[in-house]
């Protein structure tokens, strides 16, 4: 699992505090931030996020519903890599929350009795970035 994948999954599963994730994201170069957002978009699709997950994701993220990433998400536009640089942290926070909502549902429905998804087996001993 790549460094960014580990961090994203730890954040989505509540294994890392949001503040750690935001600090990590802020420390990345802008191009890397956009790559992380692209990966997050893909993870949300893979976790089968739906439009119905959006209100909870916005609430969990703490991003104001009037900010561009939240408005985009309410219109079911996941692709946020083209946002201005000042909106990237908001998009990151929002997409992590969306992944958390969708992945929790998926884990409850399809992985409750065990699965082979490596990202569902992150333990406290695994140290990320």
Descriptive overview:
The chain is mainly α. The protein has one domain (3-120). Helix content is 57%, strand content 0%. The chain is built from six helices and no strands. It has helices spanning 3-12, 18-26, 30-46, 54-61, 68-74, 88-110.
Brief summary:
It is built from six helices and no strands.
Determine the oligomeric state from the structure.
single chain
Helix vs. strand class = mainly alpha
* Fraction of residues in H or I helices: 55-70%
Low-confidence stretches: 117-121
Essential attributes:
129 residues, mainly alpha
Topology:
Layout: H1 3-12, H2 18-26, H3 30-46, H4 54-61, H5 68-74, H6 88-110
